[in-house]
Design goal:
Elements (H helix, E strand, L loop, with lengths): L1 H8 L8 E4 L6 H5 L6 E7 L6 H6 L3 E5 L12 E7 L1 H7 L6 H11 E10 L2 H10 L5 E9 L5 E9 L6
Parallel strand pairs: 1-2, 1-4, 2-3, 4-5
Antiparallel strand pairs: 5-7, 6-7
Length: 165
Amino acid sequence: QVNHYWRLMNVNETQVRNVMDMNAFVGGFAAAMNAYPVWVMNIVPATMNDTLSGIFERGLNGAFHDWCEPFSTYPRTYDLLHSDHVFSHYQSDGDGCLLEDIMLEMDRIIRPQGFVIIRDEESMISRIRDLAPKFLWEVETHQLENKYKKTETVLFCRKIFWAII
């Protein structure tokens, strides 16, 4: 799957250095990126099961985080954000936050020309596709096969580099 992502992003291996998996589970995305020269921060949402021990056992970095709050990092730190069902998790959680709040935090921590890959429920994908241009993200929609061999819509967003002249 990661190799396919790389082809769809159409970037050199060295253009992406800092990666964040926003819903890491046990670090499978980071393990799959082992062949690439990247550093991956694995995040386990605080309202999900504690799987950090599985991430640490693999020798990977990880932390708990509530995506309704700002993440403790400098702005524009990451070249790639991978979001696997983060939005639907917070919508189904009783104290969920707004989709726009999560996207705003993602926009803060992604570098200009950085990528955001979003896998989620179709209703969330549709809302994100509509909102992304308001954050100055270019959006591409791809139909990919998931781990259950079913086709799902995956969004590839790229933050536009802009300047006031």
